[in-house]
Amino acid sequence: MTEYTIAFSPSGKRGRFAEGMSVLEAARKLGADLDSVCGGRGICGRCRVAVVKGADQKRDIASALDHVTAKGVVEERYERLRGAFAPGHRLGCQARLTGDLLVDVPAESQLHRQVVRKRAEAYPVKVDPVVRLHYVEVAKPDMADPSSDFRRLAKALEEQWGLADLHAELAVLRGLQKAWRAGDFAVTACVRHGRDIVALYPGLKERVFGLAFDIGSTTVAAHLCDLSSGDVVASGGRMNPQIRLGEDLMSRVSYIMMHPGGDRELTGAIHEALAGLAAETA
Prior knowledge:
Elements: E1 3-9, E2 14-18, H1 23-30, E3 48-51, E4 54-56, E5 61-63, H2 73-82, E6 89-91, E7 101-104, E8 131-137, H3 149-161, E9 167-168, H4 170-174, H5 176-182, E10 186-192, E11 196-202, E12 209-215, E13 219-226, E14 232-239, H6 249-258, H7 262-281
Parallel strand pairs: 1-7, 9-11
Antiparallel strand pairs: 1-2, 3-6, 3-7, 4-5, 8-10, 10-11, 12-13, 13-14
């Protein structure tokens, strides 16, 4: 009987199992942390995993997307009802071994997933945010003054707030006229570093929020802050997903040295975590 090696990240559990065994069953036999509510019927979607593509020299595993069986009617039905999977993602109850495999279990699929908390200490701080709000009122367009909308905005910000040499990205400029009309030619400009207009809001806007990240080798935390008061209004945390490519900083450096494109993998993993925390805290 042909057997293959399967390893689970981030738990580190690994073992050899017969060809045709489901990823979920292998996880249960190893005690790997993989959730399932529907008993392997492909209904709940809680056992979703990511099949890792490539060789892992540390674990001595050459994993590939075709080292599990192809999608069948159960997964096709699930995707039709719940939405398509991300590339390489499968239901652990339906994917069966056909070769050596490295599997990443995302946080939402972990039965005993960790709730990471990094406390934001409360102590007196000087609130000096990079981004500030500036409310301005601008005269309506006049045939005698053919200045562009942006020039009139920049002039108003200089006269009313002392801000000069302002710049704005194309996305901001595209929404300028709409903001003018919605606010009856009164807008709140969100200005970064006193020179870059990064957003425009119709009328008066009094609160703006900033997101602070604490990126550690093991955990990542996010704190959503009110930039006017400095108060932390929401916090969240999760495991640093880079851990599946190396448990500490030196092993991640080694991974980059041994795997072309490894730096992009590490960067992509942390970007995905930060995006998720941003949505979660907001």
